[in-house]
Design a protein that fits this description.
The structure holds two protein chains of two kinds. Chain A has a domain of 97 residues. The radius of gyration of chain A is 22 Å and the shape is elongated. Chain A is an alpha+beta fold. By secondary structure, chain B is mainly alpha-helical. In chain B, 52% of the residues lie in helices and 7% in strands. Chain B contains three helices and four strands, in the order αβαβββα. Chain B has a two-stranded antiparallel sheet. Chain B has a two-stranded antiparallel sheet with strand order 2-3. In chain B, α1 packs antiparallel against α2 and α1 packs antiparallel against α3. The radius of gyration of chain B is 18 Å and the shape is elongated. The two termini of chain B are 19 Å apart. Classes of the chains: A alpha+beta, B mainly alpha. Chains A and B meet through α1, β1 and α3 of A and α1 and α3 of B.
Chain lengths: 142, 147
């Protein structure tokens, strides 16, 4: 039955990781420069889940649970904002006067954050049920 | 007369122990389904508790017919969902799919049904534990020869 706690914990870790990714997306909604100071807008990231827990010790336990398979970077998530006076705007070409900005929709991120938080709660409830069952089984010995 | 060697096979104890094993194993399946609530393409599978109870009832009747009473080993037959591993322990092969409609991420998890199953399974486990404690008290009273 301890395995069930591992499974619920893997769900908690996955949802928390997803929440971190969502927070990073929201925090960098207006980030148009990279760490070196070049124009390189922040690209939206997305945590992809897959069943199974590769960190589990036994083979049977590796099949159960969930993990973040990849944290995809969406390279196309850039849109252009017309801002001719900006020092970061394109100086020539068809996009002259436009600044590339991250294409991050706060509504989508909020909805994802809500789903992650509800799923986190569901995993807490499952872990609670497992703990109750463990306590009941242990009381048999007393 | 029950010999002390067969004491763990006496009365309702083997049926209760099997029920507890089933509930503990099913708890893992339900935790897995809840952990994958938002995994794209994941379709939860469960083990059917009604089918288990029917199989268990069959095994109890078979034991009664074989030994003529509430004693002797309980032989739970294997079904497509109830398997035994090399050490003879119960192992569940979940085959009962969720009947919920498929979401756009090809996941048909149903949070409410999952939570309901979890609550029912915890209650089922609790019933088995309580009855087992009752049986244990009965045995210890018999050993102490007190009422």
């Amino acid at each position: 039955m301890y395995g069930a706690l591992d499974i619920s914990t893997s769900g908690l870790i996955a949802q928390r990781t997803r929440m971190t990714v969502i927070s990073a997306n929201l925090a960098n909604r207006n980030t148009i420069l990279d760490t070196a100071g070049n124009v390189n807008p922040y690209k939206r990231r997305h945590a992809m889940f897959a069943p199974g827990d590769p960190t589990a010790k036994s083979g049977a336990a590796r099949e159960l649970g969930v993990h973040v398979h990849t944290s995809d970077i969406n390279e196309d998530a850039v849109r252009l904002r017309h801002q001719p006076g900006s020092p970061y705007a394109f100086k020539d070409g068809p996009n002259e006067g436009y600044v590339p900005v991250p294409d991050i929709d706060p509504v989508v991120e909020q909805v994802n954050a809500m789903e992650a938080s509800r799923a986190y709660e569901a995993n807490i409830a499952a872990a609670d049920a497992t703990k109750t069952m463990l306590a009941q089984a242990l009381r048999l010995l007393a | 007369m029950v010999s002390i060697a067969g004491i763990s096979d006496s009365g309702a104890l083997p049926a209760l122990a099997t029920s507890m094993r089933f509930a503990a194993q099913r708890n893992r399946l339900l935790a897995h389904n809840i952990a994958n609530l938002t995994t794209p393409g994941f379709q939860p599978k469960d083990a059917d508790p009604r089918a288990f109870q029917a199989t268990l009832a069959g095994a109890v009747n078979e034991r009664r017919a074989r030994t003529g009473g509430l004693r002797g080993k309980l032989e739970l037959p294997e079904t497509s969902e109830l398997r035994r591993d090399a050490r003879g322990n119960l192992r569940l092969e979940p085959r009962t799919p969720s009947t919920n409609i498929l979401g756009q991420d090809r996941n048909n998890s149903d949070l409410e049904r999952s939570m309901q199953s979890l609550a029912e399974n915890t209650a089922f486990f609790r019933v088995a534990v309580d009855l087992m404690r009752f049986e244990g008290d009965r045995l210890s009273r018999a050993i102490r020869e007190t009422a």
